[in-house]
Amino acid sequence: MTTHCSRPRVRARVRVRTLAAAAVSLLVLSGCGGSDSDVAADPVGTPSAEVENDTDTGTSEPAGIDHPTGAEDVLLRIETGGGYAPVEYTFTRQPALLLTGDGRLFVPPADLDSSRLIPMNVAQLDETQVQELLAMADDAGLLAPPPDYSPDADGPQVADAPTTTVSVTSSDGTWRHEAYALGFNDQSDARLVLSGFVDAALEAVTDIETVPFEAAEVALFVQETDFDEEVIDWPVDDVVLADVNGCAAVPADGVVEALSATGPVVSFAQGSALYSVAGAEVLPGIAPCGA
Question: What is the DSSP string of the chain?
Fold first, then answer.
């Protein structure tokens, strides 16, 4: 039997003992992540919230996995995309977790409403916290070339499902692990381990304090439409929708507020035309519009 779906069912199964132990240890970090709003204001530069320096206390920095430390370096990225979904919905999808070399953690809000843009949140982690996440990935074997993640041919076959992607970077390189319909047909050890890592990593950062991310730019997807069930005037005069007509990065001022407060069936009027508009805040290390 073939099942049609738009997103996978998440199953909290951690099959590797070291993953479970790492997840428990990382949960204690929830009260330690920086919550200073200054960290939200600089999307690609040096964060205002400083990483705690263990040498000031007379202790040495924790040994661990060597990694790039730049603001645009992505150390860990977990996302789900593709599948059968409207283009506007697909465009607004953001990573479920993105960790940068300078210790910033980007996550979507827990109380996410359906809208034309997902306003991301950010926290500042210290190096110990970064190492906890990288160690979890290492324990799952993700700092290595990917194994075969193909769904079990003997299991239920799933059509139109999204693909889950986990990218991990250390100083030795970047490894990209992709699994179609992860969470539906996970009989193989490789799929179980990857699914367990995703569940454990997301659970581990759930309670870390975050602040709203203040993006400098928004990737905007615009196309003309004749759908007029619910129409509002486009409120950002400095952004001419006809000039975008496809995908382009535009200044975030006013755009984030307009799209994050707008339901998925709204069309925008500007000039004599109606437009379908969706957006995604430009995050570190991710080229807007796939450029």
Answer: -EEE-SSPPP------HHHHHHHHHHHGGGGTSB--GGGGG-SSS--SSPPP-GGGGT-PPPP-------TT-EEEEEEEE-SS--HHHHHH---SEEEETTSEEEE--SSPPP-SS---EEEE--HHHHHHHHHHHHHTT-SS-----PPPTTS-EEES--EEEEEEEETTEEEEEEEETTTTS--SHHHHHHHHHHHHHHHHTTTS--EE---SEEEEEEEE----SEEEE---TTS-HHHHSEEEEEE-TTHHHHHHTS-TTEEEEETTEEEEEEEEEPPTT--GGG-
Out of 211, 229, 244, a domain closes at: 211
184, 257: one domain: no
Question: Are residues 116 and 220 located together in one domain of the fold?
Answer: no
User: Are 33 and 79 found together in one domain?
Assistant: yes
Give the residue-averaged pLDDT of 21-48: 46
pLDDT of residue 47: 37
**pLDDT tens by residue, 161-174:** 889 999 999 999 99
Which of 211, 232, 248 is where one domain is finished? 211
The domain in which residue 279 lies consists of 216-290
List pLDDT tens digits, range 193-227: 999 999 999 999 999 999 999 999 999 999 999 99
User: What span, in angstroms and rounded, lies between the C-alpha atoms of 137 and 121?
Assistant: 22
Same domain, residue pair 204 and 236: no
pLDDT digits (tens, 9 = 90+) for 241-285: 999 989 999 999 999 999 998 888 899 999 999 999 999 999 999
Name the domain count of the chain: 2
Residues 34 and 173 occupy one common structural domain = yes
Task: Indicate left, alpha or beta for 56 from its phi (over 0: left) and psi (-120 to 50: alpha).
Answer: alpha
